[in-house]
Design a protein that fits this description.
The chain has helices at about 5-10, 20-35, 60-80, 80-85, 90-95, 100-110, 120-125, 125-130, 135-145, 145-155, 155-170, 175-180, 190-200, 205-225, 230-240, 245-285. By secondary structure, it is an all-alpha fold. The radius of gyration is 33 Å and the shape is elongated.
Length: about 290
């Protein structure tokens, strides 16, 4: 045990006159050197780890919803390459596996020349366009406020989207489900489906509105191809001509989108962590360039 310098020097600087305080400091430094003592450093708070998101216990419904929506999103992303590969050779198959705008307009052109029944052109795209909608509705019923709070915490822009979606649903309800399926209508389709579940819209009413909206969308695309058959067929011929390049180019574009999206997500995570550390430093008296882990 070392000797307490204050016992040897008779007080502390705060209790002595200025001249005596200066002498006290010099004596204290000499005592510390003589007795090989080091000033005591009070322990400081350490930076706590990032808060873990408190998730409820996962049930089979949760895994089913999350798994299906994730697989469906990946399929839609990578399935973009199917359009140039199938639009000329297998247009009907394309309607079932990847019913894009180009596929449905091409189907309308085929209806006009009698190569495709109108009923098939209107029904074939329906399963894939509809298949994920009940899962978004189910997620809204199951998670509701918890999911909304989580999305807002991840990205503040979600607050604007959800507020706008709630306003649309409160005003239009059944008609909002129909309108959000129509292209160029500025209604966030996924948000509306989620809020339909969150507001407990009857599932039969939701399915009916969704079916009407999808058929309006499919019928409109088919009508464009029917009316502008020659132009649509010329575009299809050009797509078929360069289908190989378009297929690989589309896959390359998808990979670029994934890379930049992942990098953007990582930047947002780092920014949130830096903001958390900066706030914690200001609350605990650390300098900006001081490492709280040391």
């Amino acid at each position: 045990m070392g000797t307490d310098p204050d016992e040897l020097t008779g007080g502390t600087p705060s209790t002595l006159p200025p001249v005596a305080a200066n002498a006290h400091r010099r004596v204290r430094a000499q005592v510390l050197r003589n007795h090989q003592m080091t000033p005591m450093r009070m322990p400081r708070a350490k930076l706590p780890p990032p808060p873990e998101m408190q998730l409820p216990e996962m049930h089979w419904q949760d895994w089913f919803i999350a798994g299906f929506l994730a697989i469906h999103s990946m399929y839609l992303l990578f399935g973009k390459a199917l359009t140039p590969a199938l639009i000329g050779k297998h247009p009907v198959l394309l309607l079932f596996v990847r019913p894009t705008l180009a596929a449905m307009i091409s189907a309308g052109a085929l209806v006009r020349v009698g190569s495709l029944p109108l009923v098939l052109a209107l029904i074939a795209p329906l399963p894939l366009l509809f298949i994920d909608d009940p899962f978004l509705y189910w997620a809204g019923r199951r998670y509701g406020v918890r999911m909304k709070n989580y999305l807002i915490d991840q990205d503040p822009l979600w607050e604007t989207r959800l507020t706008r979606g709630e306003r649309i649903m409160a005003k239009w309800n059944f008609w909002a489900i129909i309108a959000c399926n129509i292209p160029f209508v500025p209604i966030p389709i996924s948000v509306v489906y989620f809020l339909a579940g969150d507001t407990r819209m009857p599932i039969k009413r939701f399915v009916l509105a969704n079916f009407i909206g999808l058929e309006i969308f499919i019928g409109g695309c088919t009508a464009l191809g029917y009316i502008f058959q020659e132009q649509a067929q010329a575009i299809v011929d050009q797509i078929v001509k360069y289908s190989g390049w378009l297929t690989w180019g589309t896959l390359g574009l998808v990979l670029v989108v994934i890379i930049f999206s992942t990098r953007g997500s990582m930047r947002r995570v780092r920014a949130r962590e830096e903001a958390r550390v900066s706030k914690w430093k200001s609350e605990n008296g650390y300098d900006d360039d001081e490492d709280p882990e040391s």
